[in-house]
Design goal:
CATH superfamily of the largest domain: Metallo-dependent phosphatases
Distance between the termini: 58 Å
CATH class of the largest domain: Alpha Beta
Number of domains: 3
Largest sheet: 6 strands, mixed
Strand content: 25-35%
Radius of gyration: 25 Å
Shape: globular
CATH architecture of the largest domain: 4-Layer Sandwich
Helix content: 25-40%
Strand order of the largest sheet: 5-4-1-16-17-20
Amino acid sequence: MSVPYRLKSMWLLSGLCALGMLSACGGSDEPVFKPLELNIAHINDHHSQFDAFTATELTLDGVATQVELGGIARQVAQFKSVAGTKNLLKIHAGDALTGTLYYTFFKGKADAELMNSICFDAFVPGNHEFDDGDATLKGFLDELAKGTCKTPTVSSNIAPAVGTPLLSTASTGYLKPYLVKEIDGVKIGLIGITIKGKTVNSSRPLATTVFSDEVASAQKAIDELKSQGIRHIVAITHQGYDADKAMAAQLTDVDVIIGGDSHSLLGDFSAVGITSSSGAYPTAITNKSGQMVCIGQAWEYSKAFGLMNVQFKEDGSVKSCGGQAQLLIGDSFKRKDAAGAWQTLSAADATVLKANLAANQPRVKVVTPDATATAALKVYSDQVNAEKAKTIGTATESLCLVRAPGESTNRSAGIAGCESANALARGSDAAQVVAEAFLSASKRAQFALQNAGGVRIAVPAGTLSMNTAFTILPFTNVLVEMDLKGSEVLGALEDGLANHLDNGQSNGSHPYAAGLRWDLDMSKAKGQRFSNVQVRNRSTGAWTALDPSATYVMVTNDFIAAGQDGYATLGAAFKAGRYVNTYLLYTQSFVDHVQAKGNIARPARADYSHQTVVTKAGVTLP
């Protein structure tokens, strides 16, 4: 017989027994709970992306249509529209920071003010919250604590050292392992989990800030909440969709996981022209207790809004879960005319289309941006618009964004020409062009290396601005030139693959290169994945085999050069002093490359780093 962790008061037990409503009256001490309906509105990974995405192509009523997608003011309006929803929690699952000039210039102040327009019940720090260290995160959390919201930050697996920015004294910490909310008379436990390896290896937390195992930390928090009589548990995680599913199966008593990090769009959006989905919304998994866990995530960059409905049984376990993620769009639409030019729909046609969407397409919602949030954002946007507006060149075709070729998520969904980019062997056009820019910036290097995760957005065809450059490369990295043996180059490539294929870390480590190409077989073991590796002569353009014993000069960003993202081979060379710091800001190097060329396009297919690709599952990509 189990030990009760939440008993009804004696009079309620007696009353239920008298009415014959409680099977435990014969002596069982199993707890009984008030049946509960819980609704959770959530976003994740907005990455300082406040502006809407213009000219995003969706299929609406069966016709290719350009819309304005997302934007923080539209998110604020949507959250306000559901404010009257019964038993509502509002959750942000991390990576609020890094990605646009709003972060470059304001270091989280703008993010906090706009997030406070929503007033989240809980926020979990993502790995990118640590990109500029604990002190910058503290400043962001200070701003988040202003006003009436005072959004709490939860993470049960982060332990800052006393005397550091996130824990100035033993009693004044910024991070709570969990918090308790009372919903309809029932206590709900909210626990936080932040991805460990990716944050330590790919961001810049203090060395004294300890990150513990995600699963063990989650179970510890759950057990502590259970000891307080709390049975309903929501985990707010920033570790990725696959990790959420794997963790759910290893935990007892977890009911819901609201996640982020993998930028996963969950649900079937094929009817609106987005064919890549990472899974169902919500995704139902069985936990270690044999009970249902409901998992949700809401894509990226303020584009989507998630609303999950969870029904609980009297024993406290999940009865059912439903809901969906929605794409938030504007009310202006463009379609191609007979000549193939995009034209704005008439007011009458737009009205008909909006009515059809409202009646037949619940996964897309037309939302008017919130006026107050728009005004608040204007204070910041006015300060950056002059810099953002500077034109640097033109992309003659879309540069699609992919991390690992063959991945399930299409990070370029909605951009014309990128509909199946994630399923192609060539992988990321954007990362390829960035690597070419680095090679152009270096006078010594024979080839350039760039990690996929350092390139943040796809680039639609059209005008390129300073904003494009600072959004595609938002970090503060510089370029370094490294002297490496050919064998070390091979080792570094294998490191980048092993980091996500073998070590369970981010696939942002996946390598792309300029002046270096290969055949890749991800179904093989480490050390056997790369073959036919060749180097391009910068003068003649001729390709020759990489010589393991020869010494080469490679240019890359200082982040992976120092061994981050799993690049241990590079880290050893860096530590030994075999590099030259160019002090070239990598974003400026991209700007210079675009300005020098005027127009940029996808490289010739023979110049892509990925020549042939076999996936981990053994599928040869086209």
